[in-house]
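Objective 1b: paired records.
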Amino acid sequence: MAEKKKHKKAKGKRGGAHAVQRPAASERWEVVIYPWTTVRKATRTQPRTPLGDDEGYVYLIESTDVGYVKIGWSRTPEARLGQLQTGSLPDLRLLAAIRGERKLEGQLHTWFADRRLDGEWFLFREGEDAVELAMEATAAVFQGWEPD
């Protein structure tokens, strides 16, 4: 696993979101963490720089009743939360959005394959922090990790 690195947190304007930036290889990347956001309290992600054609966010959305976590990709994760909530009885909440290309989603699916329930839904072990683990996995990917 990738080594933990210190990171800076800057409190967002609304919703308690925090933007986290860490250096990885020769580039910087952006993570938005939503500590309590549900579809009714979602805030709009404001990228620090405009998104490129293939860029968006790998998001982590949690089903609050059982703790399952969906790892998906969208250009607008808050809108995706609303779409998923429409077809879901339990409340869903957006845990984090990691800026990156669509292929990052597949790399995280591979990284967490032992936790996969079905499709894009994963179950993290008791005591595991899905956001922290996703940030560590993303750092490893950006530093050159490739699936076997």
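Objective 1b, second protein:
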Amino acid sequence: MDHDAPLDRLRCAERSLRRRRWRVGNYWAVEPPVAADLVGTAVQYQMWHALALVGVAWLSDDPWVPDGVVGVAGGCFLLGILLFCGTLCATAAEGVPLFPLSAPAGGLLLVAGWIGLGAAGLMRR
């Protein structure tokens, strides 16, 4: 089994995004290299935090971990992914974020999700 295959696919997708021209109407929303970097960053954050959601699902079955801690961590991850990565993609496509301070709010939610996941992991016996 080739363990580098998922990373090779991700690199291939990132290269193809770098070659795409991000054009909206008759003007450039964001310069193509910058847009590709934004989308590449969004994809990487989505991938890592999706793995964190797998950890949340794994800890949700543990009887020693309170459901509230795991539920809050999962909700923070989900909303954080939507806000942070969605803002990066919207900025790449349209040149305008979803709403002011949406990326920092999403980043704070992702940090809160990691803190909740760490707390749930420490409660596990």
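The longest strand covers residues 23-24. The chain has a mean pLDDT of 82.
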